[in-house]
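Slide 14.
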Amino acid sequence: MDVLMGSRLQFAVAAMFHFLFVPLTLGLSVLTAIYETLYVKTGDEDYKRAARFWGKLFLINFALGVVTGITLEFQFGTNWRYYSEYVGDVFGSLLAIEATLAFFLESTFIAVWHFGWKRLSPRLHCLAIWLVAVGSNISALWILLANGWMQHPVGYVMRNGRAELASFWKVFTNPFGWLEFFHTVSAAYILSGFFVMGVCAYHLLKRNEVDFFKKSFRVAATFALVFALFEVFNGHLHGAEVAKTQPTKLAAMESLWETKKGAPMYLFIWPDPEHERNAIELGKIPGLLSFLAHHSFSAEVKGLKDFPRDERPPVLLTFLSFRLMVGLGMLFVLLSLWAWIKRNRIEESRLLLKLLLLSIPLPYIACELGWMVAEVGRQPWIVYGLMKTEQAVSPISPFQVLVSLTAFIVVYTALGIIDFYLLAKYAKRGPERA
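Slide 15: predicted structure.
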């Protein structure tokens, strides 16, 4: 294993472990704030208990997310030195804003919220959790704008052999970054909605605190359905932006080798990268890919053969990740719609409750698949069209990377086990008594 592959694997391990915790933090902070708002508005003690119960699970997850996130930024200096030197003027400014504004906002008010139940008025205490939720999501915004810039660099000039910031406004308003933000945050909200519904399903199947968990379930079902539907709409817009700015990624997502006008979309293709052809094609829909990519059934979509071999991303992994992600997204729409329809008498739908309990891991898988599409599909570029990944790696030895990669896997696996153990333990325990 050379330094490049080792560094890529190390960053992938760190990023994918970190993203096991981030989506639940983003969504559960908002759901906890909604439950406490309902308590302040109605005076219903069950909503106060809900805010405390789901907030405890949020705190457990938040702590692990912070620990695993810090190491990601250090890797830009240890493993990706030339990347940091080349584009640090642009990329570093966005991460600096995230740390000094968003992270300190959420980390400060999370303490105020946790310790302030008997020290603040209900309205001020509710404001604290909303500030935590806003801080968490603003943090995601700046990080995703930074990643969006890597996907579609704008607002820079080449000076002194490096990319320097020329227009912060262009970087901030980069359409790719905002679409990526809405796509990722919506996925996080879906995950959190399904997490809450799944935990509620566990207790409702056991007839524990039926009234309490029905109230939590109704809010989560509505939350999940709204963002599952929005994700479909946003996914279409994001796909069109990918078609415009990253045509190689689009071609890999669809295993399109030949440039075509009126390009069809297949429900399933088994790509054969070695011979640059498709071995199996099922469910052909003429012109659909052209329409989704360019809003015209007769538009031309470039195939992979129109790009140099050394600029094509890995096709099989990108293609399969995209298909599985979309398939799971459609499943979430159906399940959340079913849950919303049955929300008022959910305790009677034992089949649905069992399905929702079993579905808790699926949004996690979908989120990881989404990042695989985004990052693997961008290869061989670390900054699309500007800097290749092989040019960014630090001059370190393969042994150093192997040691750190092994350490990351061991430590992160332990942290992951601790997190999911604690989440399961306190989720099964249920809320504090009234």
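Speaker note: Residues 148 and 176 are 6 Å apart (CA to CA).
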